Amino acid sequence: MFSQDDLQQIARHGLSPESVGRQIEHFRRGFPYLKVVRAASPGDGVTILDDGQADRAAARYDEAAGRLSVVKFVPASGAATRMFKELFEFVNEGKRGKGIDTLLQHVEDFAFWPELRAVLPEGAGDKAVVGAIVGEGLGYGSKPKGLVTFHAYPEGARKAVEEHLVEGAAYAAAGGKAKIHFTVSPEHRNGFEALLAEKVPLYEKRFGIRYDISFSVQKPSTDTIAVNPDNTPFRQDDGRLLFRPAGHGALIENLNDIDADLVFIKNIDNVTTDALRGDTVRFKKVLAGVLLGLQERASKYLKALDAGTGDLEPIAEFIRRELCVKLPERCDAALLRSILDRPIRVCGMVRNEGEPGGGPFWVANPDGTESLQIAESSQIAPDDMPLMKSATHFNPVDLVCGVRRADGSKYDLREYVDPATGFISSKSSGGRELRAQELPGLWNGAMARWNTVFVDVPVSTFSPVKTVLDLLRPQHR
Where are the beta strands (DSSP E) in 336-439? Predict the structure, then answer.
């Protein structure tokens, strides 16, 4: 199947012929649907905290933060193409819908208006205005969301990446230092570094902390081969194989390289303004405090099992009630230990108000247990789709991760991925149809074998920007 040139190309990606062969086999066989049992709901997989419980959890984190290594991990490699899709259609194809009318009617209300006005020629028409946003001018159509101006303040507008600096100072600063890690595309790294070199000193002075900013790019070894519709390797015009980035699930490699006790994960576009940030900061601390409490008890029970002094029933009850794992009727110490000794993630879940996104579900596992998973619609069989529609909550990507064992050593997160949870999509290259493969999503299959706990958080903590018009919402004004 592979020529000598192919083998050299595969090796340059850090892949092996065997791993590429497995990818091709996934194309041929497809990925199985998740064995979804039911949607998680309040009291059945989604924990509802009262004010007192939330306060105690936040206080637990505040008290421990100075002793912990904390990192805020922000996937920021995605381009803003979809954010400006309607604008491109207007500029390139002349399609004018209600979105364009709304944008032009409120163009002066966007935080980027002063920058836009500075590059507009006098008497610019509608198409010139929209063209200056996505093309020559602001160039937002070819920039990542992190470098788009989101919010206006009296002292000056902020881009999305700056809002993560502000957030990081509020809940991820341990020992006077806020560590923030951005995953970026190689072509945009210089843009991020230049902006942060300018802005970081200003925010350090404002908040009286130091920032430790780091970057990584998606590893070539996580790329997947593209195939033709008949599942044979897709070849470019020069005869070379085509490898594609395998989606955000590939970032489990980047996360695995982070050396920290706690890792907060939040998407680059989910930020709000200073005036509305209170709930976000409070509940980030709440989630972290819940995680620390779970880690403490799991560690105690692990030590008891290892010493041969553990009473199995209270351990099993902790696993069922607190770690949200449904155990089989008969379980021994080995099974209990294997469940306790896993990375833990505590995920905020927002009440379903019609926003897009995956949701929290109970899933059946091969070992006879049931556990909580974040599932996307593409992972659910058509016959099970009514379960998704019945979900009370959805996933805003609001995670706190505990990635160390009780003895302080770090988990190898790659051991907790479910490789059978990727998916296939139809794409094109050079006008030719192809099939592409994405790895298990970062908070889906890439964390499938973690211990997962869902906590209800207010919708005010979720302020995504999926289209440019979202910047006109109250959360961004």
Answer: 344-351, 359-364, 370-375, 393-394, 398-402, 423-429, 432-438
Q: Which residues contact 201 (CB under 8 A, 6 or more apart)?
A: none
CA 271-277-281 angle, 5° bins = 95
For strands 149-151 and 243-244, give the pairing: unpaired
- Measuring CA to CA, how many Å separate 99 from each of 95, 96, 226? 10, 8, 35
Q: Which amino acid is at 397?
A: V
For 22-78, the pLDDT digits (tens) are: 999 999 998 999 999 999 999 999 999 999 999 999 999 999 999 999 999 999 987
Q: What are phi and psi of 394, to 5 degrees?
A: -135, 170
Segment 217-266, tens digit of pLDDT: 988 889 999 999 999 999 999 999 999 888 888 899 999 999 999 999 99
In angstroms, the CA 52 to CA 142 distance is 46
Number of DSSP helices (H) and strands (E) in the chain, helices first: 14, 20
The residue assigned the tokens 């296939």 is 424
Other beta carbons less than 10 A from residue 21's beta carbon = 13
- 387-423 as b/e, with b when 16 or more CB fall inside 10 Å? bbeebbbbbbbbbbbbbbbbeeeebebeebbbeebbb
Contact 256, 450 (CB under 8 A): no
Instruction: Provide the token pair at 169.
Output: 């100072």
The per-residue pLDDT for range 357-377, each reduced to its tens digit, is 689 999 999 889 999 999 988
